[in-house]
Amino acid sequence: MAQITFISSDNKSTVVSGNSGNLMELALQNKIEGIEGNCGGVCSCATCHIYVQPEDWTKIGPPNEMESDMLEFDDKTTNYSRLSCQIQVTDAIDGIVVNVA
Amino acid sequence: MTGKSSQTCIIIGASHAGVNFAFALRKEGWQGSILLFDKEATLPYHKPPLSKSYLNAEDHQKIDALYPLESYTTDDITLKLGISIASANAKDQTVTCQDGKEYHYDFLILATGARPIIPNIKGIDTVKNIFPMRSIVDAVAIRTALKKSISKKVAIIGGGYIGLETAASLKKLGATVTVLEREPRVLARVTAPEMSHFFEKLHHDNAVAIHCNKNVTQLAHHNKTNIISCNDGSIYEADIIVVGVGILVNTELAEQLGLELANGIKVDSTCKTSDESIYAIGDCTNHYSPHYNKNIRLESVQNAVDQAKIAAASICGHEKHYNTIPWFWSDQYDVKLQIVGLTTGYNQLVKRVETAKEKSVSFWYFKDDELLAVDAVNNAKAYILGGRFIQSKQQLNKEKIKDSSIAITPTSFL
Ligand SMILES: Cc1cc2nc3c(=O)[nH]c(=O)nc-3n(C[C@H](O)[C@H](O)[C@H](O)COP(=O)(O)OP(=O)(O)OC[C@H]3O[C@@H](n4cnc5c(N)ncnc54)[C@H](O)[C@@H]3O)c2cc1C
Known about the structure:
The complex is a heterodimer. Chain A is of the alpha+beta class. Chain A has helices spanning 23-29, 57-60, 65-72; strands spanning 2-7, 13-18, 49-52, 81-83, 97-100. Chain A has a single domain (2-100), classed as Ubiquitin-like (UB roll) (Roll). In chain A, strands 2-1-5-3-4 form a five-stranded mixed sheet. The N and C termini of chain A lie far apart (25 Å). The mean pLDDT of chain A is 93. Chain B has three domains: 8-39 and 47-115 and 248-315, FAD/NAD(P)-binding domain, CATH 3.50.50.60; 130-245, 3-Layer(bba) Sandwich (FAD/NAD(P)-binding domain), CATH 3.50.50; 334-402, Enolase-like, domain 1. Chain B has ten helices and 26 strands. In chain B, helix 1 (16-27) packs parallel to helix 8. The chains are: A alpha+beta, B alpha/beta. Chain B: Keywords: Dioxygenase, FAD, Flavoprotein, Oxidoreductase.
């Protein structure tokens, strides 16, 4: 089981846990404000943009080419941007904190 | 106004449009009750994967639910699944279920979508294992039939996105797939010939046979298989037939309600119909696009979700106007196609091939100097920036777009 803290744009912090699917789905299940996942998780809409805390970056790792291309020209993109639909929820990411972009 | 607690909002159709509307309505502050009807019994799910990852997934049990069941409870959305609305009356503001039960509404939302066209081909009632591809029931039936089939021969009638995606997915499952398209090329209705040829080659390279100019005129069941005859005398055999020749908008209820129809249910920029208390959203609507300055009917998740939010905001008095540049995607084999904009009316096509990237090409559709649409194959940058250029009516240098030695950036094509 991985425990994940989402901090939404209105600074509300929600701790959720999961052990399957992707982070976007987990956010939707827990109604995290600002995560929409309109395309259903196929890296096509960029409505599930999050920032990973720098100290958690190695746990999650960088985006693949398609994902980084989706993000590259977004004004909100930082060095720690990811699309949450592309992050699998496993024990490996237990304890991370992410901010909704 | 955010709906007194005594008010009722009824939604007909619990798919991308209806479900997103229900949640959006709560978010906008609606205090009344929300009843969400669908004739399908399955917890509302994502449709695009049906012809893509769901069809060829190992684990067939997992459905891609739009929201988990708990979310409906949390937001006090009453899901009424497996119930078909048989009629509606605008004067009394009521809807009636198939079983005769009647409900009163203060606001009614038509999110009835569309149904697959079943063409009137001679012998269509005599063949076995013939399926449309619109619902989870169809996808499961196709998979089950393929499992049972020994020859694993599948014929797909119609080379649109759904037909081509289904072809790619069934191929991956070990089927021998033939696509029969009536037009001289696949995707004829939506893309330029160059794009059609790209996809024809992609399927050819993956050993899926695509035959164009094939008007299927007769179907028959013979020797435990289906025989498909075309107008040019050619004959194909298939255990399974998938029909993907387009959709018909579900407008029967709208007709009963006396709403204005025009190739779909006519809505204004807030998704309101010709009746003050009835809104319509998603595939069943026809709306005016300020950007393209014309009425359009879209079949896409983006349109369903965006219209859902617009309608919810408007009903709660936070009026918003719909003017999004349409976007869409399709996944076939290792190719991701992303589309932004509408190609209708283009008179010039600019093709760009990324040399540094495999199978990455983009088609830029112009009407004179205005960019109308971009079809981007494995090229998210072209898709994202294309959308931005379309929205802002940015003037672009077509020669620079063509030149793949110039990287795609927000300013490199100016
Ligand atoms: C196989 C497939 C692949 C697709 N791929 C993509 C894609 O990659 N990208 C994309 O953007 N779009 C894709 N689409 C299109 C997208 O799924 C539709 O645009 C979207 O589903 C429209 O949503 P909707 O809610 O408007 O209508 P629908 O999804 O058609 O839902 C309408 C619902 O209303 C219900 N209903 C109708 N009448 C009644 C009644 N009288 N009583 C009760 N219930 C009723 C129906 O049962 C249905 O569930 C795909 C569609 C299919 C079928």
